Amino acid sequence: MKLKPIGVFDSGIGGLTVVHALHQRLPHENIVYFGDTARVPYGPKSPQVVREYTAQDVDFLVSMDVKMVVIACNTVSSVALDVVQRHAKVPVAGVILPGAEAAVKATTKKRIGVIGTRATINSNAYAHAIRLLDPEVEVISYECPLFVPLAEEGWIEHKVTELVAKEYLFPLKQQRIDTLILGCTHYPLLRPTIQAVLESSVTLIDSGEATAATVEQMIDHHGLRNPSKERANLQFYVSDIPAKFAEIGERFLGQKMGRVKRAEGF
Question: Is-catalytic flag, 184?
């Protein structure tokens, strides 16, 4: 059981930032990643459709005989966590609660901002999780949909990205937040621009990094840590266009990806 891979899935390519964080923290854990590139993005879709897609995504990972499932998608974590838990039958980690916990620990003024897709923001999942942890915290949430294509285009510190960031983040600056959750797995790529716009006084929370820390705790709690000292095997599957995924994905993963395979049944 310990030698089995960790399964990670996302609506597309952004979840590779979570894989990067996991690989940094758990370098000997094998990982199978699935990106639903045929149906991306999940953010603008209805909760019912997201839940239907999620069930299929998890069933694919289960067929790969994984020992744990990590939801590397804020939208799925927001509206379909119960679907994953029901289908996985192995330990499950999402990105919402770890991100919320990290933000509550970081804030000093109890004013936390959250940025994400429309589905993530409309679900109020982060706000709900934060208020359960500390009812005194004020949460200010905003949609930032254009950050996703900018990250995929590789316009990390482009002038256009700076202008968009200033437009999106101005209301959060006015609200005097001291902590900001990057509530989409694409957003860490734009971290330098977001930090520059908000200035150094605002702490940025990467929910992927927080999730990787939670996964490590869960792995040890369930006695699932891989004892091998060999280099981990990372496998990548998508529902469409493997070549494009590989081309863009290396930017998100931070290393060469090798072969990307097309998953059957999508």
Answer: yes
Considering the domain architecture, whether residues 181 and 222 belong to the same structural domain is answered as no
Q: Give the chain's domain count.
A: 2
Model pLDDT for residues 177-200, shown as the tens digit of each residue:
999 999 999 999 999 999 999 988
Catalytic residue status for 73: yes
**Which residues, at least 6 apart from 228, have a Cβ–Cβ distance to it below 8 Å?**
3, 28
Q: Is 242 exposed, middle or buried (0-12, 13-18, 19+ CB in 10 A)?
A: buried
Give me the catalytic one of 73, 80, 112, 260: 73
Residue 134 domain boundaries: 96-207
pLDDT digits (tens, 9 = 90+) for 71-121: 999 999 999 999 999 999 999 999 999 999 999 999 999 999 999 988 899
Among candidate residues 44, 91, 127, the one with its CA nearest the CA of residue 220 = 91
Is 1 domain-assigned?
Answer: no
Catalytic residue of the set 69, 184, 194, 205: 184
Q: Are residues 177 and 253 in the same domain?
A: no
